[in-house]
């Protein structure tokens, strides 16, 4: 009769989650956050009443996830492992009730599965080498209720410059955007959502100063640049820029030598 089971940070013997987990058919909440798991049993297909499932493991090696999530059609919250093996192929198109989805991978799941997830508010997408940007962009266009969107890279795709492929201005409700991907320069301001309030830039290695673009996004309240988001030497914040900014956080930019903040910025 168990409804809630939190196994966060548990180290399972041999890395195997016991198959008996499938007997807990009334579970609504299951968390394996930070757990050491190398094997998931197919009996998880029996957990059809789950509302929340967190599979953000602390796994060094890629894990195989059996294609059983498609049967958990009540799910509202789903967090997938960042490291899944090449044999993992997931069908998620029937999870139409999802509001939170982290770790959606273009390598392990078809981008068209997003088309029916129109209730999504939060989405984190892992980009792969085999990503079809045209298909992904058209699928994302259907997610008109998104409030938070994150793009991040898998290790094999870190050196690929992605962001020239995306236009995000159709996300009229998007408030938060995280770009954890390589890009030589930041997209033009007209490519950003019109009411964006928070932006996070990590690992981008931008060669051009992003401030002339970011300061024109009129609704921005917070900006964070971290871990070599910018690899240039000079950054300028101009007079009249960032009219609503409340917080600016810059960290781990080893190439940055000069930061000019004009009066009235």
UniProtKB/TrEMBL annotation:
Xref: InterPro entries: LRR_dom_sf, LRR_R13L4/SHOC2-like
Coiled-coil ranges per UniProt: none
Domain Disease resistance R13L4/SHOC-2-like LRR, residue spans: 1-251
Alphabetical keyword list: Repeat
Pfam families the record matches: LRR_14 (PF23598)
SUPFAM superfamilies per record: L domain-like (SSF52058)
UniProt keyword annotation of Repeat present: yes
Protein name: Disease resistance protein Rpp8-like protein
Organism, scientific name: Arabidopsis thaliana
Species lineage: Eukaryota, Viridiplantae, Streptophyta, Embryophyta, Tracheophyta
């Amino acid at each position: 009769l168990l409804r809630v089971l939190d196994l966060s940070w548990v180290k399972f013997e041999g890395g195997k989650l016991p198959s008996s987990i499938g007997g807990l058919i009334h579970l609504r909440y299951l968390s394996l956050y930070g757990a050491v798991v190398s094997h998931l049993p197919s009996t998880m297909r029996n957990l059809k009443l789950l509302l929340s499932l967190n599979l953000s493991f602390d796994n060094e090696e890629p894990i195989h996830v059996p294609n059983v999530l498609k049967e958990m059609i009540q799910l509202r919250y789903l967090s997938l492992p960042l490291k899944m093996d090449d044999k993992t192929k997931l069908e998620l198109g029937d999870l139409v009730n999802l509001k939170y989805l982290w770790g959606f991978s273009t390598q392990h799941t078809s981008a068209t599965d997003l088309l029916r997830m129109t209730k999504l508010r939060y989405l984190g997408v892992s980009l792969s080498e085999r990503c079809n940007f045209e298909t992904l962009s058209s699928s994302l266009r259907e997610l008109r209720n998104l409030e938070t969107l994150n793009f991040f890279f898998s290790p094999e795709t870190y050196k690929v410059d992605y962001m020239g492929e995306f236009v995000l201005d159709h996300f009229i409700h998007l408030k938060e955007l995280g770009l954890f991907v390589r890009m030589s320069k930041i997209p033009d301001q007209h490519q950003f959502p019109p009411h964006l309030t928070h932006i996070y830039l990590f690992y981008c290695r931008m060669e051009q100063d992003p401030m002339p673009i970011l300061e024109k996004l009129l609704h921005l309240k917070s900006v964070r640049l971290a871990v070599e988001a910018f690899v240039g030497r000079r950054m300028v914040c101009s007079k009249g820029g960032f009219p609503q900014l409340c917080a600016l956080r810059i960290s781990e930019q080893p190439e940055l030598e000069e930061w000019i903040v004009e009066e009235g910025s």
